[in-house]
Amino acid sequence: MKLLDNIDGEISHILDKAMDRHSPLVDEAELLFGCTGKEFLALILVANHIRERAVGDIVTYVINRNINFTNVCVNRCRFCAFREDQNSQNQFLLSTKEIEAKTLEAIKMKATEVCIQGGLHPGADLDFYLQIIEAVRRISPDIHIHAFSPMEIYHAARKSELSIREVLKILKEAGLDSMPGTAAEILVDKIRAIICPEKISVREWVDIIEESHKLGIPTSSTMMYGHVESGRDKAVHMDILRNIQKKTRGFTEFVPLSFIHQHTELYKNLSARPGATGMEDVKVYAISRLMFDGLINNIQVSWVKLGTKFAQFSLNVGANDFGGTLFEENISKIAGSSSGEYLSPESIKALIRDCGRIPVQRTTVYELLG
User: What average pLDDT does this structure show over 309-325?
Assistant: First the structure.
């Protein structure tokens, strides 16, 4: 008996096209975000098939260490519980010596990457960000520096009265290797006006990402979902990312970030959903695999956001990367995540093998290390 016979004709047509390497259009992706039942199961099967076709049975991971250098921020994003005012008793700002120490810890744990992000400190001009890179480079000339979101680049340019291109060029020359494609949230301005009204616009985010790619600075791509956005908003967001990738080929991966709601203003005061449902999480991974087929091969699970069990399950619905060891994670933890701050390489490998897949360590830019 064919269990997935007689599914909705429109959904069947979209999935058949995806199998033939024709990714869903925005309207079609929106329709997929609404599917349930047999159609939902068919979506999972197709996404898993396309994942296998694109990257095989290898599941990658990176040994890395997060460094959140400050929680002081001039912006007030409503989904964030991490930020503090400069005069808050809970504020912190790492010294260059502390950054050096954290980098040394990363080296000792055999990390190949430090991932560096922080709040928008009012004193953070270009020299401030250069001092962070220089501190890392004093400890290691080789460790990959994955640092500074497009919002931080914009902030540095504004504070130093330089162009985005000038800031990116100077940071690259100092040792910046790649950038996290965070600050994207949802790339729909009407949604940004609700969740992060002081943040850069969609156009500004796209321009900074494309400029970094032109200069040879690869970035990840992200989407933060499960709050006030619709299925169509998610589809539009993915479409913007794939159009950038068609132009630049500068994205290394796509990282869905499920909204951690508990301690945020967006949830407590502005009636956001209490994070994504399990169905929504699965659909995001599966639909992104279909949307990015042939463009962004690597789709990463966030075990901090999902928990290790659901992250493991997501490897069966389109994802092929388990992310990093992290060692330290402040932003999700403060918002209410209970998934922890560190996952050992041994634990990651065991979770991957339990899926019948092959764990392989990688670099930040997806070079396989064995």
Answer: 95
The neighbouring-strand residues paired with 258 are: 225
Dihedrals phi, psi of 149, to nearest 5 degrees: -70, 165
Which position has the higher pLDDT, 252 or 84? 252
Q: What are the structure tokens assigned to 331, written together?
A: 């932003």
The reported pTM is 0.93
Domains of the chain in start order, with CATH, are 9-361 (3.20.20.70)
Residue keyed to tokens 């949307």: 291
